[in-house]
Amino acid sequence: MPRKGHTEEQIIYALRQAEAGKKAGDICREMGVSQQAFYSWKRRYAGLGLNELRELRQLREENRNPQLHFRGLLKLHSRYGLHGCLPAQRRTFVPRLRPGQLPDQAAR
Asked: Rounded distance, CA 49 to CA 36, Å?
């Protein structure tokens, strides 16, 4: 059975309502979730603001597909022709990449 899936913004809104004094049962009934789900959200997202939530989502997206990073390394390998070089020589050829930066965006 597929999950309904509430967005993080909806979850944070529900938690803020609970902090304001609304009963958890009423919030759960409005959102269509069980109280167990509500309290697991409370445990997971307690104290998070929207900025921290966006950072968390960005980190999850970056970690979701590790093949993207591997493909970027393969592009660097093929671009600079580092087949027969020693590791010390490779370090001088390959530009430094920031997290989430693709090889095409690297400063040369």
From this structure: 22
